[in-house]
Amino acid sequence: MAAEGIRPYGGLVGVLFALMAGHAAAESPLSAIDWLSQPVPAPKRSVVPPQPQTQPQPPARHDETPAVKGAALPKDVAVSVLDGPSPDAVGLLTPAQTGFPHALWGLGLTDEVGAALTRADPVGLPALQGLLVTLLLAEALPPADAGTEGRLLMARVDKLLAMGALEQAQALMDAASPLRSVELFRRAFDVALLTGDEDRACAALAEAPDLAPTLPVRVFCVARAGDWTAAALTLRTAQALGNITPLEDALLSRFLDPDLADQEIYLPPPKPVTPLLWRIYDAIGEPLPTATLPLAFAHADLSERAGWKAQLEAAERLARAGAITPNMLLGLFTQRDPAASGGVWDRVDAFQRFEAAVQAGDLTAVEQRLPLAYARMADAELEVPFATLFADALARLDLTGDAARLAYEMGLLSPDYARLSKSPHAPQDVRGLFLAGLAQGAVKGLAAPDSMARAIAPAFNGSEVVLSEDAHLLIDQNRIGEALLLAMARIEVGLHGEMAKLTEGLALLRKLGLEDTARRTALELMLLERRG
Question: Taking the chain, what is the end-to-end CA distance rounded to the nearest angstrom?
């Protein structure tokens, strides 16, 4: 909490000014994520919208292409605003780092690209999760119709938040921070609430009250700064203006008045639960469990304030989504001895026993403990983080039997899959040979061991895979970003039964030059139980 006596808004005049400061901003679409704290609604104004100018589409130059309609071509020619920088160009990864072209979106329409990003579903495959995050963080020219509102930037941030990638979302917002925005600030504030950094966010709000996220946020921050009188005045003003819900009113009243907090009056959980409401429930001694809340809330349970079991379960959720590193999972799993049995405690016990055997180089113990440890991690769909941590060490051991087979498959799930696929311990049966071929990107002449392999094989055996009209249009127009999202969507549909779509998705990834992603995705499809 900030030092006593700080008055961010300086009395009644300052409070009223802060309440009104954000209202002049133009209305913007609400986030697709319903748990984000919503902004104070702007007053209705009668404005005659400018009439769009109709212009003929210019002929394509060597470095630009016409737009694509529907899933591919837009109805109208896009006109870009030229009087200021577009926040949509902001990124953390340069084209040299991603391998994507600088004109990633071409002449695509901002809202269509944003909608495609919002729909994207990596279906529990870490390779596709990584591809999507890279796409969201890529620095690229904005779509042709991008203005200065940052609509695509907001869609990218919101998708990262939905995936639980709070650190990446915050870094992306920090990169755009010179372009001040109420929308960016309220997202950054929500991230701060979920990561326990709300005091810094409140300090930023005190310096720039015009960013005006929500009225409850102002009450919360003034109270956190120690000025309870100003906080109560802000709350009463919000009540008078009708800019606060009954539940927010009751919660903030309890937050400001310990006597009210001691009363045994049940407050139902809000719908939806926003980060601010979650934090206030926690502050008044009525914490809401995060297990059933959106993934981003799991970060709140990584703090030292949460118990170890809550930390473990949150880490599992986040690691499953690729939102935290395997090393963070390792640190939590080996922090102390398991306190009980069943569920996450069984995973911790099996993990610790196996890790100790690996550290000791005890071949017999590793062979005994690996099958159970791998099965426990598979129960939580954590095979890839587990493989990333241990595959290289296992490859150096002369294992036999089931342990040898598991160690080999873990190598194929690891980042070093290509090298480890050449292990002298690689199985020589039909399945083993096919997996090794996939790791090398060539399965021509190899028998497919099952239905999944039969769907994967045409994308890697030199067959001519027929791509859809949408895919051809996007490729012809060099709209690489949308084509990557289309490939991901095809694989998602394939996992729900249309295996020909899965074949097309993998072939499209390879055609776009994402060979590593295509191979890792194919290996994960073979080795993980992710069947929709």
Answer: 46
Give the length of the chain.
532
Closest CA to 367 of 410, 389, 411, 400: 400
Q: What angle do CA 370, 373, 374 make, to 5 degrees?
A: 80
* pTM confidence score: 0.84
Cis peptide leading into residue 272 (ω within 30°)? yes
Contact 124, 80 (CB under 8 A): no
Spatial separation of the C-alpha atoms in residues 374 and 399, rounded to whole Å: 15
pLDDT tens-digit map of 442-464: 999 999 999 999 999 999 998 88
| Main-chain phi, psi angles of 73, to 5 degrees | -105, 130
pLDDT digits (tens, 9 = 90+) for 116-171: 999 999 999 999 999 999 999 999 999 988 888 899 999 999 999 999 999 999 99
Which of 251, 252, 254 lies closest to 263, judged by CA?
254
DSSP letter string over 122-187?
Answer: -TT-HHHHHHHHHHHHB--PPPTT--SS-HHHHHHHHHHHHTT-HHHHHHHHHHTTTS--HHHHHH
C-alpha 216: how far from chain center = 26
- As a whole number of angstroms, the distance between CA 494 and CA 228 comes to 57
Domain residue ranges in the chain: 433-527
Cα separation, 29 vs 485, in Å, equals: 23
Share of the chain above pLDDT 70, in %: 83
Helix axes 326-333, 344-360, angle to 10 degrees: 100
pLDDT of residue 58: 35
- Cα 333 to Cα 283, 322, 330, 348, 355, distances in angstroms: 28, 17, 5, 6, 10
CA nearest 359: which of 381, 390, 333, 337? 390
